[in-house]
Specification:
The chain is an alpha/beta fold. The chain has helices at about 25-45, 70-80, 105-110, 125-130, 150-160, and strands at about 15, 25, 50-55, 60-65, 85-90, 110-115, 140. The chain folds into 2 domains: about 1-45, no CATH class; about 50-160, Rossmann fold (3-Layer(aba) Sandwich). Helix content is about 40%, strand content about 20%.
Length: about 160
């Protein structure tokens, strides 16, 4: 018994719901329902939205981003191109589920891939590594509450190269 709780309290269980919503402890139903969830996941994978790619193939630098960082990343790419650097942007409009067939060739042909993310932990870079084994070269993170700018990205790239 857990102190402060009545005996009727269920802290954890392994109950499953049948297709008509009834609780069961039947292990066969548990396996069947989990298999059904896995099939649904595979169906979702077939409907995955591929990331958008901007720039030349096999770039020296690939900026990998998602969400609202796109505009700043594209502006930074343009500035890099004007400087004579071969740069591209890979922008994820959808981050789950991930279908590596849609983006791994871009990561594999880039000399350097840098994640540009508006969070403190590099969530997309971690997810890419978890799902594909690909480790991006570096991170440029912004989490001070301000939006990304091309200048912030370019300054981050300068810090990475020094």
């Amino acid at each position: 018994m857990v102190p402060g709780f009545s005996e009727a309290l269920v802290i954890a269980d392994s109950d499953e719901h049948t297709e008509d919503g009834k609780l069961t402890e039947d292990l066969g139903v548990r396996v069947a329902m989990q298999d059904k969830r896995l099939r649904k996941g595979l169906g979702l994978l077939e409907e995955t939205v591929p990331p958008d790619y901007y720039g030349p193939d096999a770039p020296d630098l690939l900026l990998v981003c998602w969400g609202s960082t796109l505009g700043a990343a594209l502006e930074a790419r343009q500035t890099l191109e004007e400087r004579g650097e071969k740069a591209s942007v890979l922008h994820f409009r959808q981050v789950w589920p991930l279908d590596g067939r849609q983006f791994l060739p871009f990561l594999e042909t880039a000399k350097h891939a840098v994640a540009v993310e508006g969070n403190s932990t590099g969530q997309l870079a971690a997810l890419l590594r978890q799902e594909t084994g690909v480790l991006l070269d570096s991170l440029i993170l912004r989490y001070d509450g301000l939006p990304f700018t091309a200048r912030f990205i370019l300054d981050g790239l300068d810090k990475l190269s020094s």
